[in-house]
Amino acid sequence: xxxxxxxxxxxPVGDGRVHEMIRITREDFDPAQLLDEARSKELGALVSxxxxxxxxxxxxxxxxxxxxxxEEDLARIKDEAIARFGVLRVDIVHRVGMLAVGDNIVMIVxxxxxxxxxxxxxxxxxxxxKESVPIWKKEYTADGSRWVPGEHD
Amino acid sequence: xxxxxxxxxxxPVGDGRVHEMIRITREDFDPAQLLDEARSKELGALVSxxxxxxxxxxxxxxxxxxxxxxEEDLARIKDEAIARFGVLRVDIVHRVGMLAVGDNIVMIVxxxxxxxxxxxxxxxxxxxxKESVPIWKKEYTADGSRWVPGEHD
Amino acid sequence: xxxxxxxAFARFRELFGDRLEVAVSSPAMIRDVVMALGQVNADGLxxxxxxxxxxxxxxxxxxxxxxxxxxxxxxxPVADGDEVAIYPPVAGG
Amino acid sequence: xxxxxxxAFARFRELFGDRLEVAVSSPAMIRDVVMALGQVNADGLxxxxxxxxxxxxxxxxxxxxxxxxxxxxxxxPVADGDEVAIYPPVAGG
Lengths: 153, 153, 93, 93
Known about the structure:
The complex is a heterotetramer, with two copies of chain A and two copies of chain C. By secondary structure, chain A is an alpha+beta fold. Helix content of chain A is 29%, strand content 32%. Chain A has one domain: Molybdopterin biosynthesis MoaE subunit (Aldehyde Oxidoreductase, domain 3, Alpha-Beta Complex), CATH 3.90.1170.40. Chain A is built from three helices and eight strands. Chain A has a four-stranded mixed beta sheet with strand order 1-4-6-2, with helices on both faces. In chain A, α2 packs antiparallel against α3. The longest helix of chain A is centred in the middle third of the chain and has 19 residues, at 67-85. The two termini of chain A are 22 Å apart. Chain C is an alpha+beta fold. Chain C has one domain: Beta-grasp domain (Ubiquitin-like (UB roll), Roll). Chain C contains three helices and seven strands.
């Protein structure tokens, strides 16, 4: 079982009032609040990705992470998105622990002056998370459980 | 000046509790609420695009639409996104009227079982809006005003 | 004579007004409607035309909310009571 | 002898536990640490190895939080007190 762990990376952005967040957490998060807090008048385009436990016959899933490495990876992926696409703001929150159908799993909010960078940055980040950040899911069904195979098995 | 006009297209989705929305409006909208209302347990991936009046030296902008045609276009673009990418839910809200720096312009929320379709659908919709839906922006600066040239001039 | 409703948007609205009626002789085509706008604003009409006097490709034209495109669009027929819309390239989103 | 901290995740955590210490003779390399897991769970060790007895490519290995890759990774040195992590392909997001 992943140990309880929470990491918050803060850096001033815009008017310095609201801070970016890179977090792995056992707590739920509020997508609406994350989106609202990311807004600023420098960011003409905000693209968000919200991943939710989908109802495809499972009863729930347990998420586990190598917390310390996952956090470093998320921070590095954020920096890479900034360098590659010129995005100005990145928030990433990823939950671990037992989740039910409909629960939030992950949210990424990317802000940029223009839309293309925001889309590219956001999709890049979720793709990189799925292929390289040490997080795993075990799905529970009425019949038992199974580890979700990685996309890059 | 664009006339006041508002159109709401409703169709049942998921449990039928919350309805999709295609709307051109003079009223502000709440991005957080739009995102929240789009959630359902069939939608493993929600991608949103929020366009905001960016602070690049302007004091504000006035948006104008050919309302009846713009609405038909948005509905058609939504249907095209559903047909092309297999997305399951699309909300589009676009404002007209006088907006200040930091104000919401447009929000698109796209839900799909998986992330690729949600990203493709959302980016497709904003691209199509920018190239084909009859909406125009006039920017106001300290020195005067100018019509924003279309991306496909 | 017959009457056609014209709607103009953005820069063209500023030149011609957002809703107007123009009288053209029947049978009429898009070109007749555009040229009739010269009575509202002769200088404005010049903004719609290219060096050969054709309607610029960048001017978008709809008849009854359907976009009319192609080389022959100026000869597209217009009937009494039709709604003709003209606008510059769009810039929403 | 020296002591190496091992962390295992997901399926491998179920086989070996999430945190354990293994004793290996010095100098040691990754291969020694992996083989020592056979003392914890001999059947589990077989899941890590391919037909030739090499650690499967799909088994990800980190030493002190740095991923070790390449053909020679099993010969990568491991020092007393190092943290060696093993895990299957990731599936987050």
